[in-house]
Structure formats: structure tokens, C-alpha cells
Amino acid sequence: MSRREISVQPEPVLMCWSGGKDSSMALQAALSDPSLRVEALLTTVTEDYERISMHGVRRSLLEQQAAALGLPLEQVRIPIRASNAIYEAAMRQLLLRYRAKGVSRVIFGDLFLEEIRSYRERQLAQLGMRGLYPLWLQDTRKLARDFIAAGFRAILVCVDPKQIDPSFCGREFDEALLADLPAGADPCGERGEFHTFVYEGPIFQRPIDVVKGASVERDGFWFCDLNIKEESHDPKLVVQTQKGIRRATGCADSV
Q: Hey, what CATH topology would domain 10-247 get?
């Protein structure tokens, strides 16, 4: 058999997905690499409040993202205020299932925080797996501008008021926002200045029709509640908004 006749199969990988811009750029890099095949998105969700851990975004919006991306979604479900041990056990259980299927690498959207990357590598090594970091050490100002220029659209859903003003919460991630960020803030929010939700872009088959709700302060952070447009007038969601955002963020996951 000639070399041309040999079919090289792409490597199956998992995408650790937060729903934000760095995850989107990392996924875009993976999807454009013919040597990789993304098997599924992997997201940590806080039970009872049904929101993405740390970001506080509704699970229904996460599922809309996965549908618009055309990729399977794996949810690692953890209880409210889960400890590191509980989080790691839940993650380990899911990763072992994929390891048994031949997946040995997980993609992350990390940019430059060495301690986070080292933590991930230690956890993965215990399972015979490794991380893949398509955006690692790239210039974050250029990344931010490339994200906007590529046609991605995102909203700041979580803001750390110790680093940037709460008025940034709920704003579009655009050139105007980049110009307004204080000099010490990373343009991609890599030090936790902010988190985003991406609702449109070149990797999505369709945009996600979202509406902005209230911005509220919970546990020292500001959150902008987003909802799917057709659900935004449901009065039952008002109570969920006030309770869910606060408690959906008590997780050690930094994805």
C-alpha cells in the first residue's frame, strides 16, 4: 500500500468549554486543524441553579451554544459551593470515560497563567492525558482584536470590581470596551478581570438570540444575567436570577 492510500485519522480531543471568548478562539483553532477531531464540549455546571460554574450563565444558553456549534455537550455537574476534591472527582469520572475511548488530550483556552496550566497538567497526568493550549503565550491585545475582527460577538457576564469598574458588566466585548479598560487590565481578562459569553461568530452555525437582564452584585463579583429571548418574559425566572447567580459560582473550576 502506498503512502497516498494510507488514511490518517484525526486525533480525537475534548474541548474544555466555558462559553467565553478564549474557549471560542481555542475551539476555532482546533476546528481548523485537520489533525484534530473535537469529540465534545466539556463544561462544569452547578446543580440546582443550573448555571455554568464561575461565569453564572444559564445552562439553557450553554445548550444553545452547543447546538449552534453542532457539537455534543458533556456537563460535569457539581453541587453548590463544591470543594476542589468534589470538582476533581467529577471531572475525573468523565475524563476516564473518554480516555477509555482513546482520547488523550484536552483543549484549554488558557493564555499565560502558568499556575493554572501546571494544575491542569498535574490532574490530567494522573489519567494518562495531556492538555493542548492553542492560544498559549500569544499577545492578548492582538488576540482580543483578532476575536472582534473575526466576527465574534460576546458580552461581559462577570466582572471583578476589584480590578475593573462594575459598569463594564453587561457591555459588548468590542473595540470601544478595549479602549475603556484601565491600563493594568489584561485585554482578554486572563487575570480574572472579567468573563464573557459568546453568542455569535464564525464557528457558530447561527447566532444565539440573547437578551440582557439585571446586573447584580453577588459574593464580591458583578454578574449580568442573560437569557434566551423567548424565555425573558417568564416571571418565574426573576426569583431564579436573584438566587442562582450567586450560588452558581462557588466552584474551583477556572475554565
A: Rossmann fold (3.40.50)
